[in-house]
């Protein structure tokens, strides 16, 4: 993942998390109790300042009763179309 994409990805996941939490009328403290993750850590994830592990995202998703993909994928995008696939393949020459 390139350095330009990473901050956007973290911010997008954080926005989705905050929206899902707000939709369920949960405070950070309440979500912290449900997940076992501290409220300050959850706040850092929501603001895109912390890169959460997959296991952390799974705990959050379980507490919110949503699939993990609800945190990762923008539902406006159709990930099944394959539009993100490279047109010409990969150049792995630099990695060999």
Please tell me what the overall shape is.
elongated
Average pLDDT, all residues = 85
Span of the ends, CA to CA: 18 Å
Helicity level, as a percent range? 40-55%
Explain what this protein looks like in three dimensions.
This protein is an all-alpha fold and 96 residues long. It has a single domain, classed as 434 Repressor (Amino-terminal Domain), CATH 1.10.260.40. The chain has 5 helices and no strands. It has helices at 5-23, 28-35, 39-46, 54-64, 69-72. Helix 2 packs across helix 3. The radius of gyration is 16 Å and the shape is elongated. The chain starts with a helix and ends in a 24-residue tail after the last helix. 11% of the residues are buried. GO terms for molecular function: DNA binding; DNA-binding transcription factor activity. One of its GO terms (cellular component) is cytosol. Residues 17-71 form the HTH cro/C1-type domain.
Quick structural summary:
This protein is mainly α. It has five helices and no strands. α2 packs across α3.
What are the salient characteristics of this protein?
52% helix; mainly alpha; 434 Repressor (Amino-terminal Domain)
Topology record:
Blueprint: H1 5-23, H2 28-35, H3 39-46, H4 54-64, H5 69-72
């Amino acid at each position: 993942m390139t350095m330009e994409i990473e901050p956007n990805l973290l911010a997008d996941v954080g926005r989705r998390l905050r929206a899902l939490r707000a939709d369920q009328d949960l405070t950070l403290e309440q979500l912290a109790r449900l997940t076992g993750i501290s409220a300050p850590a959850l706040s850092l994830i929501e603001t895109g300042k912390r890169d959460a592990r997959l296991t952390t995202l799974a705990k959050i998703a379980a507490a919110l009763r949503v699939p993990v993909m609800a945190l990762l994928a923008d539902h406006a995008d159709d990930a099944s179309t394959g539009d993100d696939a490279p047109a010409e393949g990969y150049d792995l020459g630099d990695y060999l």
